[in-house]
Amino acid sequence: MPVPFKQLTCEEYAVLLDKFPFTRKINAVHMHHTWKPDHAQYKGHETIVGMWRYHTETKGWQDIAQHITIAPDGSIWLGRNWNSPPVSAKGHNGNLIAGPLMFGIIGNFDYGNDKLEGEQLKTTLEVIARVQKKFQLAPESLVFHNAMSTKTCPGNSINFADIVSRVRELHSSLGKARVFARDLSDAPFVESALEISQVIKEALDSLSRVPTGEEPADAELSHDEAEARAVLQTTSEATRGPSGLTPVMLEMLRPHLVNLNMGEFSSEGEWKTTRGDIDAIFEEHLPKALDKTQLMKLPIMFFAHGGLVKESAGLKIAQKHIDWWLQNGIYPIYFIWETGAFETIAQLLRRAREGAIRALPRDAFDHTTDLLIEETVRALQGPRIWSGMKLSAQLASSSNAGSEGGAWYVAEKISQFCNAHKDKVELHAVGHSAGSIFHCYFIPAALDLEVPYFKSVHFLAPAVRVDTFKAKLADRIGKGINQLSIFTMNKSFEQNDNCAMVYRKSLLYLIYSALEAERKAPILGLEESIRSDSELKKLFGLGIPNASGEVIWSVSLSTQGRNASTSQTHGGFDDDGPTMGSVARRILGKSDADSIFEYITEQSGMRKAELWNDQVDWPEQIQLASAPDIVVKPLSTSSMTPSTTSIITKETGRYRALCVGINRYPTAPLFGCVADAQAWANAFKRMGFEEPLLLLDEKASRANIIERLTSLVTSSRPGDVIVFQYAGHGTQLPDVNRDELGGDSANEDEAICPYDFAGGAFLIDDDIGEIFNQLPSGVNLTCFIDCCHSGTISRFAVGTTPGANVADADERPRFIVASDELKQAHRHFRQNLNRRRSLTSGGPSLMREVVFSACLSSEVAWESDGHGEFTVRALRVLQFGMDGLSNEQFEQRVTAEFGSTPRQHARLYCAPSAKALHLLQPLSIFNR
User: Which ranges does the record mark as transmembrane (predicted)?
Assistant: First the structure.
């Protein structure tokens, strides 16, 4: 099955075009529109799958018709193999030797409908021009569909002569293909993105996924109502189930799903599983995967999600993971085990309004405390419900008196498959939260059925009782389980987690204190339970060498490798990139240095309201008890510095930021600054800042930066925390007003380069210092400046001009050498300002701002792989947590991230007294 389809940026497409092994000569470029779906009906990957489904199942073609589809946002979806002739127009499709490259544009571009403009137009022109340049074709080699048929395609509002003229202009200006890091709105730094080589490798694999061949000679896209209805039906919201997945998406998951309800195969709900479905997995799908694997043995991984997870949530978890496992050569099988627990808890809590809760004192809901929640959950029969969930896990893997559970049947099929394919497969298991309880029954059942062994078992925040684990699984380690690893939070993070902002600890603590029948029964995922048990300490090697198990504590110091985990919530482990990457490396037997397809996290390890928010309807009284006058700052904590200030009251003021990033300098472009600014903005939002103001590219003129920065500073008030972040070029300029001190070589101003700097419109340290002088007392102003000479950008000392030897084509310094023409333009610009400054440096002791710089004044600030190297490391430190972290400690940790042989040194510039102040915290906290 060819889906999922690969989505690329325009830059990635350019590199792919350069690297693709063409065996077919391209002699023309064919241009279509989809007609329907139009812009409003476009639903991303679903739309591409809908077209593919219609083209293959209804029309009988071997693949989707087009080689490329251009989305409204300008991104590019890959289609059929570029060495296969397309289905474009009757008699014009070519063959395996020569023919057109054909693309479609999402939209209806007939008069009065969608407009081809913006990023979609830009990508369209570049797709045409790059293909033509590669194959030395003239601009006129472009062919509209309407020139080959009676259709209006690609839309009668699009003028052929105009498109050809624009493409001709591009022919002379297109540069060498290069790729920049993707814009990951939910991930603050480049470690969360795929390596560029991996992106291109995935794309090449995608384009070689089906055999090349030729369609019937009369094959042609119709762009008619029948096609439109078929595609739109596939992508219609009406076809989505509670999980949000369409039938097509669910069908793609069929070879990987086992749906259970109270231990038996589920015969109702959004997804149903029969014995026939299980037979198909082991008799059809796994043998195919075994034939295709490039590994010595095919890893088969059994995943069990948490026990309070409803069916729709379990399906979404599977849909989120499965493609990633397959990319890494691992065949995943997901147990979607419905317990009814979340529905039961929700019903009991709703009845609490009329029942048990009424008996509590009136003020019981006026002060939400963990003890109250624990007692309330017990009063509402929480232990009985939790026991029912555990019974569901047990029943799934049982076989009594001829009645066997669904997981038992799966175990039987595993045993048969392993016996039939000895030495060609290996088994692994992953359980998240109560999924560890499920596996404490499933793994022994499989081993009792003579499955050879499980090479590895991995528990994420395991919710199983210690005594259950010991009774069911511990003795199997070394006797059926080769490796066991646990990924769970340190005690401080467990206590800083929450359940829907009502219970102020993690779900494991709620289980420990309220859901288990025995109060405070030791739970395997709690640090205190492990450390207080001598057998577990020995098993997991806590102070004891040569252990057979291992615990990886979150938050780890490393963010990649076999021992990385950065989740700070109980529910976040299965979406934590470092955790998932660690599990994959352990399954594949790879070292820290070995590359894999890294997992792209959705939450980036930040705090989220997990299980309870989506699955349980808390009584209104409890919801209202969440203290609306308290703003909980979602600032992550550090394992080195436990949080003491994670709750900030309204009186501490506002959190605001101005983020500036400039790539498209007319005369000296950069490639990672916009991504930096967006990454900083996203990080600030996750910390609880108001929506940051972004000034990107041409919006970041000198006038705009001054206006916005002045407004940020002057509108602040005591208790506020404000941030100025800048990524772009820096430079040094003649000191026009002679305010800098030092010898002749030091008579220069530090400057940042706004978008319009070429006309002399620099923003020098005097300008910024004048703005910062207006800062009200009691405001914490912090700057993160990622450019050369950033250390002294706000006012004081200067340095010498650095040299920069560019070692790699994808890295460059963020520094402009001021030519004589630029210096003259600068002098002229300053004279025309009609004012002179007499800012006198008093040294760092007079600084009221805190400035984190990318480098020393004598160094170069580098960008590589689509991000500033300072930004990558600074945001990595922030991801680990900042509560209790001082400004000086932040500087030290960022410096450490550069390693033992750094080519630039991050530096803190501030008054000596500010070094010990907490990073990005209100000054009022330290003045009380």
Answer: none
